[in-house]
Amino acid sequence: MHRSIKSVDICIATYKRKQLLIGLLNSIANLKFPAPIDVTVIVIDNDLEGSGKMAVDDFRNKCGFPTVYEIEPVKNISLARNRAISCGESDVIMFIDDDEIVHKSWLDLHLIALDRYEADVVRGPAYPIFPENTSPWVIESGFFSPRLFAEGEALPTAATNNVSFLRSAAQDADDKFSTAYGLTGGGDNEFFHRLHKKGKKIVWSSKPITYERVHEFRTNMKWMLFRTFREGQVYTRINFPVVLTRESMSYLFRTLFLLLAATALAIISLPISRLVAFSYLVKVAKRLGRLTGYTGLHYKEYRASS
Fold it and tell me: What is the predicted pLDDT for the residue at 202?
């Protein structure tokens, strides 16, 4: 096993999603992996009222995995993730979102990828599961489909919806999720980008699969465009944090040009195809987000329950 991996912490940050959390924990209970690996499940509830406790207690009673449950009282997903890391001491840390379920070989295939590519971090795909009444155009748009890369391809960042990384790769005092992203989201991208800049190897593997159960309230144009806007803001905050540099000014003007072009194409295509028009509206939202990422007016997606 890669670098003598003997233990794994599966970390979950949750917030008022009891039924979804139950589904995730049930899928974790069905994992198949090599017997010598010790697995601990760590659930950090960001709900002060502890709405996830019953689900975790039931999982602990039915499953043989050692299980940790704690409450992070301050509403901030970065604090919840940091608490999860500090609760464990295993060789490998894995993160999975509470609205997902994992394939039975998920853990094993992550460990194989860490070994095969001699990686510090492995990122995998999350495929959508839609509600039955989802509009066909939402599915056809591909908005919720994961971006795929070549097997073993090096990446500049990762996300906590399907990731594993060596604890030894994040041992510095500043190797924590930034609380500045705790209500906006994007702290996972920023965290792994920092590891990348420190020389840690992040790779893609399409084999450790997860499935995201898409919420019904997300399957509409407004939510999708606001999510894209937020992602655009996060991109700028991570990659171009200082405005007055030649590189950042070039980025600003390029983004503005692309925004104007996407806006024109969205207007032109609207009478022809709603799907095509939406694809350009996504580009508009992304560019608007990137432009406004320099401001302090950041869209706080996680201020409310989601």
Answer: 98
